[in-house]
Design a protein that fits this description.
Four copies of one chain form a homotetramer.
Chain A (H helix, E strand, L loop, with lengths): L4 E2 L4 E6 L5 E7 L9 H11 L16 E3 L3 E2 L2 E2 L4 E6 L21 H8 L15 H15 L4 E9 L2 E2 L20 H16 L6 E8 L13 H10 L4 E6 L10 H4 L3 E3 L5 E3 L7 E2 L2 E2 L4 E7 L9 E4 L5 E4 L10 H27 L1
Antiparallel strand pairs in A: 1-2, 2-3, 3-7, 4-7, 5-6, 8-9, 8-10, 10-16, 11-16, 12-13, 14-15, 17-18
Helix pairs in contact in A: 1-3, 1-7, 3-7, 5-7
Family (chains A, B, C, D): Belongs to the chorismate synthase family.
Pathway (chains A, B, C, D): Metabolic intermediate biosynthesis; chorismate biosynthesis; chorismate from D-erythrose 4-phosphate and phosphoenolpyruvate: step 7/7
Function (chains A, B, C, D): This reaction introduces a second double bond into the aromatic ring system.
Chain lengths: ~350, ~350, ~350, ~350
């Protein structure tokens, strides 16, 4: 049972609603004696927090994390780490008929269908604010992984406009408000998203996450596959509709000859792969190549254009979402994607150590 | 921990290797008093079994299932159901240098990297023979779901050739060896795959699985999401490299206006959705619309064209896979996809009942 | 993996140390639409909190619970419920050589052996303060169970002095500081424990927990047995060294004739049991009779008499525990026992509903 | 969810009924490269199998185990190990009114109350035959633990007659049909049990299990405690009604001074404990001393003396159990107890390695 828990050995449970007093997570299973301070976590939260450019929601949240347990004299103790982030800008307002209407693309209707009740303030539990807790957990997961593994994500497509792969540069990612690895494309996106934002519209995106330095042998057949775990990790992020590993959907178009990642003898007796169609995973187990995951984020469902819907009484209504929102929610999914990659890898590192010593 | 177990309340554990004496699964948590006989399972296994056309491997396996426990006088008893399928055509042969060489695209290298040992006969545990156990479990899951839910899958793309959606007809699916819902496309695929087969090559495919009749309210935030569970379910199938829900990767290209599934008042006070970009899932919970999942299957890695690789000693080798293989392994993934959809839904039906009564 | 999580469908994860800023728990899986307010929980915490008589530790903690998530407009929403209790009396003091010495009977040495680090302030994570979170979770579990099930616990033995069963009266339990169901025995215990307290010594106890109104059919073979779950629940409470169901250890002394709980036809076609040696559980499943569990609590390890031990450097030391402590820690185990019974039953109620409708 | 699965990292799932074609278990998570053959398991099964003396049931079962998967060329591969034992002496007979009557002390009534159906042949799933699968799993767990850990169990009390501790000798255990470590007591038990057997009666027993060589540091607070896991492990064995760790129920009678296991400086900087009231576990974590568990087994419920009961129609009946049965089912619980100790320790060895490296 894991409705609000992710992971097996490195596992975290998140709690909190968009407009409740706070949100957070309990991280269990963390190895002892790791250096851990709030500053190690805050930097990642800052990357995700709203209101940093005109391209993200204008909700003002400092997202300050507090370590409530599990750390003693600056080191992890092996006991559960509780991280808490207070909500400070859950603006008091009249939700009016939004409280009873089902916004298209949101979880309003399905929460009522399931539970018969929902916290309608800011989306309640279904709000992307929950991902702050993931980012915090991801920061701890990076500590578990140690310095040998590099995890980075970038936005590689916005709407129909993908980056130019020949210009891919990780160093560009933090130079623009889109986490875009291609400066030229970032410039074009700026104009485009500005227009979308002014129209009260929104647009989808594709995020790519890459982990380098993962040794061969992590993961496990057949229901603990590293790729299957990454699929559920990414698909659990708000608004994600598809997950690709390596060649992804394109793999369907290839022949066996094209898809084969050939090997040559490499260093230390390890094979040196000549390509990475597999995305660093074969049979659910890492190959030692970069682990490459991409996922599609749908456009923010909150838009200014009126949409037809119904309310809790089954009556026809028109829904317009004013308020604060992200015109491209994919942007803030970038640090969340890194965090989910980190927690999956930390879990598999520990699983591998448990079984294979 | 669930290396070989799938599901929470409806859960099954598979065991067995390609060339061992048998394979099977233990299904735990099945409700009591369901009618269950071997005949209820055999039909689904027959659909998956090899050697049914020239387009699948020529290994001859009757795949006869035996119920070893959990059924008394034709009814489930609530205790674990053990299903066993004996391997009969695990041809004795000289594996020669394949035993020491790493076939590109296969799990040979990663198993050695992880475990230091592998059963190289027919791929051992990494063989797609394991999916026979999934299909058997899926047949039991359908019993749990009952007659109100229809689960069907089809192959909708082979290589670059997708079906024509205007000709989509579920009734065509069993009229051709590809589970193709479009008779015209099936005819073209026949020629194409025949050529590929004769060349000893292989090709990828896209499978679509649809569940109709799923009530609104199944699934759960935030790590028990129905779509996240479907993602891990499909990604765990051999050779799958991408999973899409509803609009899938295309969602990245849409605006908020295009992506919104508008609602009108429907029957019984339920909303009547005007489109299904969501694929029947919002916020991880079913909407009552058809649940739509697609996934990409890479081309079979076993091909006649020599590929460069290394062996267990780190030496350069060339690998050619003769023997029996599927030129398009996506075909036999169709009944497996249905089975995985069924087990995920059965699990969520029970989870929903547990929490929401 | 469940180092800090208890339960399957009704499950809670506790966090926090004795002298950290706060402690709490996340309760996941709670059904929606249950009335829940802090007042529903506080009463149970008050029963457990320290400093209520001279027979318990003089640490002053108000143990005020805050609901941080999962409740909206007074009702549960089906999303995780975070409960937080701030620590207010984590007295600043010089721990001196206690910080490096291993107190006999405490977890000091084993935490160091496992983790290489320990929060020595008040026992850190191994402190019985963690049980406040269990009591809070138990209050929510009672809501899940509803009014038809009565859960009560009592202290039935202190040292070698057991109650007189003929005087057992649940109404007496709250009339004395021992939760003793026998007023006469309570009076004798008062004198005895006063002497022990003044000597700086401590004494063990036996607690009995009884759940009435549990319907027949909860529990499950063979590793989800109701009695096995109760065993792990009670054994996980600090200082517990034995758990009995029904006849318990005495069952070893009985013949088959003596142990048989005979049945006569009862109401509604249900059997009317003539005795309850089974403690309300047969084959791991409830019989409809009262579920009866007893457990032994060892004497508090913190005593004034010097005990031989070693320190972290492997040197011989003498340990004397001054400070605040419970002379009979069994007393405060009573509300904890009720809570653990409640959470196990709530979990099995939901498990039963999931599988058997 | 773990109705039929035990363990976290070393975990096994059992299946099968008393009178079905076979029973077995799937063991998942086993480290690779361990030597494993059927002969390694068979010896333990032989110790448990029925019909070895007049003091156990006369059912004749060879209990021959077959390894169906997970082992290649004599070594574990890291994939699931399926072990199967065929039932050969499930005597065809007329169950007559037993099929509809609820035998006191058996799980007949509770299975019907839960599931509405039961396999009444030989107790079906509730039969102690299930423990054969546990013993098989225990043999594999011993392989995981390696040679440094010794696990032994003995029957230390039959009815009211306990062994004389001064004569405790592990070497005696296999010299008598009771696994009794005291030859003198074994002689007395022989006469006593013979009389009980001839009367068609039965008697309870106490079993003690001791693990030596367990390093300090295995186990985990607060719901992964080694003692709590042992409690659930032993309580899940058929007919067990109580579990004790170390001093057990007697701990309730002790003062803090009596209960303190004092320490002196020992070898390698480790403490040398002066007593073992704790049973080798403090705060849920092993101390390095012997881990000592005892449990009470109730008398076999199958007896010749007529007992009052009801049938499935709610009518009064008298139940007499003829057929084959164990007059003291505690005897055959001895190898089962060893197996459960082994699986719990193997699991915790792997858990410790995962978190603490």
């Amino acid at each position: 049972m894991s409705f609000n828990t992710f992971g097996r050995l490195f596992r975290f449970t998140t709690w909190g609603e968009s407009h409740g007093p706070a949100l957070g997570c309990t991280i269990d299973g963390v190895p002892p004696l790791l250096d851990l301070a709030e500053g190690d976590i805050q930097g990642f939260l800052d990357k995700r927090k709203p209101g940093q450019s005109k391209y993200t929601t204008q909700r003002r949240e400092p997202d300050l994390v507090k370590i409530m347990s599990g750390v003693f004299e600056g080191k992890t103790t092996g006991t559960p780490i509780q991280l808490m982030i207070e909500n400070t800008d859950q603006r008091s307002k009249d939700y009016g008929n939004i409280a009873q209407s089902f916004r298209p693309g949101h979880a309003d209707y399905t929460y009522i269908a399931k539970y018969g009740i929902r916290d309608y303030r800011g989306g309640g539990r279904s709000s992307a604010r929950e991902t702050a807790a993931r980012v915090a957990a991801g920061a701890v997961a990076r500590k578990v992984l140690g310095g040998g593994i590099t995890i980075r994500a970038a936005m590689v497509q916005m709407g129909r406009h993908a980056i130019d792969r020949s210009r891919f540069d990780w160093n560009e990612v933090n130079n623009n408000p889109f986490f875009c690895p291609d400066a030229v494309t970032a410039g074009m996106w700026a104009d485009e998203l500005d227009a979308i934002r002014k129209n009260g519209s929104s647009i989808g995106a594709v995020i790519e996450v890459v982990a380098e330095g993962v040794p061969a042998g992590w993961g496990a057949p057949v229901y603990g596959k590293l790729d299957a775990d990454l699929a559920t990790a990414m698909m659990s992020i708000n608004a994600v509709k598809a997950v690709e590993i390596g060649a992804g959907m394109e793999a369907a178009c290839l022949t066996g000859e094209e898809n084969a990642d050939e090997m040559l003898p490499g260093k230390d007796g390890k094979p040196e792969f000549q390509s990475n169609k597999a995305g660093g995973i074969l049979g659910g187990i890492s190959t030692g190549q970069p682990v490459v995951v991409r996922f599609a984020v749908k456009p923010t469902s909150s838009i200014l254009t009126p949409r037809k819907s119904v309310n809790e009484h089954g009556e026809a209504v028109e829904v317009v979402t004013k308020g604060r929102h992200d015109p491209c929610v994919g942007i803030r999914a970038v640090p969340v994607a890194e965090a989910m990659m980190a927690v999956v890898l930390a879990d598999h590192m520990m699983l591998h150590r448990a079984q294979c010593g």
